[in-house]
Design a protein that fits this description.
Length: 137
């Protein structure tokens, strides 16, 4: 007799470890494509770029365009971003990485050169803010 579950697998959910979903997490129903495929957790802030901590008043330069438009870059801190995610609610859980390019964009006057001591100190201070918590949807 053949088992009805032969050839099938049950999984508690999948982790998408390489996403640029930073702003998609904020979109109503933005995570539906993920959850429809069984993804229950995303890792955002990959490739050295993250939505946070950065505010932009102009069109984002590449590679920031991968994660959002100017309006999406509206958070000075992970705490502000996490509050916004909590207010809106998210359909997946998320682990958030602070992007080194994001920190450079925020604190280095000319990103074509190495950070000076003062800029590096500001980047490090930004990282020492309370660490982002893992979010559960």
């Amino acid at each position: 007799m053949e088992n009805a579950l032969d050839g099938r697998a049950v999984a508690p959910g999948f982790i998408d470890v390489h996403t640029h979903d930073d702003s998609v997490l904020l979109s109503p129903n933005g995570m539906e494509p993920k959850i429809s495929q069984g993804v229950t957790r995303v890792i955002a802030g990959n490739c050295g770029i993250s939505l946070v901590p950065l505010r932009m008043t102009a069109t984002p330069p590449p590679p920031f365009t991968l994660i959002g438009n100017r309006e999406a870059f509206a958070f000075d801190s992970f705490a502000d971003y996490i509050t916004a995610l909590g207010t809106r609610g998210i359909a997946t859980s998320a682990a958030l990485l602070p992007g080194h390019t994001t920190l450079r964009q925020r604190h280095v006057a000319d990103t074509q050169r190495p950070a000076n001591e003062a800029e590096l100190s500001r980047m490090l201070a930004n990282l020492e803010q309370p660490s982002p918590k893992e979010l559960s949807g």
